[in-house]
Amino acid sequence: MMFICVLSMSACLSIPKSIKNSFTYCYDGKYTGIDTLINIDGYYLAISIKENIKAIGGFLDARLGRCIDTTYTRIMFYNNGLMVYNMADIYYNYIKKEHLRKDVASFLQDFSENSEAVGANDFYGNDWGRYIVCGDTIKVQRAHKSTSLNDAWVLREIWYKIIDKNTILCIDYFRLPTTTVPQVSRGENYLMNFIPIPAKPKPDKSWILKEKWFWCNESDWKAYMDSLKQEKSKKK
């Protein structure tokens, strides 16, 4: 029974073929020129404030009340085609758990100086992917990695229109693979503004770089994996 459970968990955590096949922006590590179109020495931020109705009170005193929800959406681009989405969500978790007294920029700067700093594993295990530039539009495909039986693999595509060097506009957002069944629209476009930071974490420790399906050429993937082995052996 234990053996069956382990097999079931392994199957759930492995990436589905449907997502592999739907990921079409393969990675080659080449310079994209995005830094000639927008600033990338930082990240882009959108803040959404909404009023929602939620249940408040205990079981015997349940009632509806209005509350304000603030959502932060962040995306960071690298000039080699990599991107990371909502990479600072973990910041708020560490603020609570570790009682950190740092802002987001300082938190991210820690990873740029030490890939083993507090929170680095979560940063490099976050939603990573690849973008391509098509005229005035940045098209992103990002993958959410499954980490438990309650956390499914998800692949999404997002399109951003370049407004100026410091502003991009989300103009499309959908889940992959697409099907003949109409998908629920996000229902809104939102602006994202550039936030500069002193130092960006290097992307070379991202989990997605270890995935062979992510690369355009298998030989490049093997070279990357060999570099990780060499780096690991030097630390011993």
SSE diagram, text form:
Layout: H1 2-13, H2 17-22, E1 42-56, E2 63-77, E3 82-85, H3 89-98, H4 104-113, H5 120-124, E4 127-134, E5 137-144, E6 154-164, E7 167-176, E8 190-196, H6 218-235
Antiparallel strand pairs: 1-2, 1-8, 2-3, 3-4, 4-5, 5-6, 6-7, 7-8
Question: How would you explain this protein's 3D organization?
Answer:
It is built from six helices and eight strands. By secondary structure, the protein is α+β, with helices and mostly antiparallel strands. It has one domain. It has an eight-stranded antiparallel barrel. Strand 2 and strand 3 (82-85) form a beta hairpin. The longest helix is centred in the last third of the chain and has 18 residues, at 218-235. The model is unreliable at 1-12 (pLDDT under 50).
**Total number of beta strands:** 8
Q: What low-confidence regions span 5 or more consecutive residues with pLDDT below 50?
A: 1-12
Structure classification: alpha+beta
What percentage of amino acids are in beta strands? 25-35%
Amount of helix: 25-40%
Biggest β-sheet: strands ordered side by side in the sheet: 1-2-3-4-5-6-7-8
What's the gyration radius in Å? 20 Å
Largest β sheet strand count, sense and barrel closure: 8 strands, antiparallel, barrel
Sequence of secondary-structure elements: HHEEEHHHEEEEEH
The total number of structural domains is 1
Shape field? globular
